[in-house]
Amino acid sequence: MNRQRSQCLKTGLFTGIMMFLCLSVGSSARAESIQIIAHPDQSTVTLSSQNLWAIYGMKTRHWADGTLIKVFVLPTKHPLHRRFSINALKTYPYQLDRVWQRLTYSGTGRAPTVVPSEQAMIEAVTSTPGAIGYINSTTDKGACHVVKVQ
Amino acid sequence: MLLRCNSNDTGFILKTCAMASVLLSSQVSAIELNDSTEIHGFFSQSYINSKNNNYFGESQNGSFDFREAGINIFHEATPTLNFAAQLTSRKAGKTNDGRPRLDYALLDYSFYDKAGLRSGIRLGRTKTPYGFYNLIRDIPNARSGVSVPSSIYFEQLRNSLIATDGGNFYSNLNRDWGSLSFELYSGQTGTDTEMEYYVLQQDLPGKFDDATMRGARILYENLGGSLRLGLTYAHPEFDYIPGTLDPFGAGHVASDMWLYSFQYNQEKWSLTAEYLTADNEVTDFGVLPDRFSNTEAFYIQTDFRISQDVTTYLRYEEQTLDTKDPDGTKFYQPLFGAAHIAFGKNRVVGARWDISENWMLRGEIHNTHGTLWLPKSDNPSLADRKEHWQMLVLQLVYNF
């Protein structure tokens, strides 16, 4: 009897999941643009959005030339970080936090380095070999290389 | 004298408050020793108030007997070689005494990283890949509740699940349809007294020897990670070493565990579900007949992010020790005198408040039917264990 109830409940839950999936609509990303910047040495680099997701998920650790990638981010609650997450990575800040926490506390990797502002981002990316970061499209990129994302 | 004592106390309290406010106001994301080395850590303190049974200490009177702490180091020795280690301490009633233990200590050599494929090996003590949360089951700010769901993550068998001493091969494939992460591992692992209760319903004169563990996990994630799917296989094996005047023989326990994981993420909500089916064998214990059983468990959790700082969640979970005896009346009632040791069904309502980058407060209410995952060391008398029990848990977490 109990078993029947439990089976019934499981079927119900499964149906629930499916309904949720069907009803949910992907949130549309706003079209304010962001530029991805890299250290001047990476001047030939272009990336696909899949490359960018793998880099920010800390899954790809090296540039094609073998240099270690140094990933920079703004604080979780920074409006530009939110826009970068949604527009460039098709994800949300909370999901990136989850990914980085998993790496940090399980010995399987390292989280990106957090910089406090856009200006600090430009300075860090300019001065760190292998660096990647992001800024507003209207901000002066300084000596950084702007990475084309296809 | 009394006055001096009081002023000392006041001084201590003031100092503590000053320290806490410094910690609260300053934001520490990591301690970077140099470009290639960083240190992270965490601390949690819980308050548990339970009804009918104890959970981590004498919680029926309100207990502060659950706290966790950890510190880890990550060092990039070369672009392809990393070293990582974490020391943790866990005080959880009578089930964990708070002694520091090495949670992981590993060398990670990534021998291939080209064109979206990265592969490597990890040697040493590595966290066991099992479902979505096992890697970070003891990290209070990273897991999905005050603890990971007991139904799937076996709090009572935690020592055999948390880490494996051996080797781990991993591979990540990134494509435009998403990413696949694969891990394969084998090694030695630990056991604990709760294991004796789990298998034989009592604390025995003998003990389970170090166990062997092997398994694999594959995870799929689409670009952006809104959909995550996982399949885990794990095969633990344990040998029982009888003590003096032990009624049981040199028994053997093994299990084939299959865990299916599902998660869907949107900006305002997430839905997570995991389902486990495990075929177990308990053999050669002498007085106890050889047993072959199937354990089944699942949970489903929805998270609602009602603001940037506040998330509420609901969870329902079940574990059935033996699917041939789901309500415990056929086998467990006649043999041990209680049917409720054979199952657990739990409803959880919770909320999480991220106070600052480093501080978090969580609260949960549990309403549980069945005592399958009740910590038996905190409730040693079977006769005193109640079938229905409830608890309130508050957990304050600091991490950097």
From TrEMBL, chain A:
Residues 1-31 form the signal peptide. It comes from the Bacteria. Keywords: Signal. This is PBP domain-containing protein. It comes from Amphritea balenae.
From TrEMBL, chain B:
SUPFAM superfamilies: Porins. The keyword Signal applies. Residues 1-30 form the signal peptide. Keywords: Signal. This is Porin. It comes from Amphritea balenae.
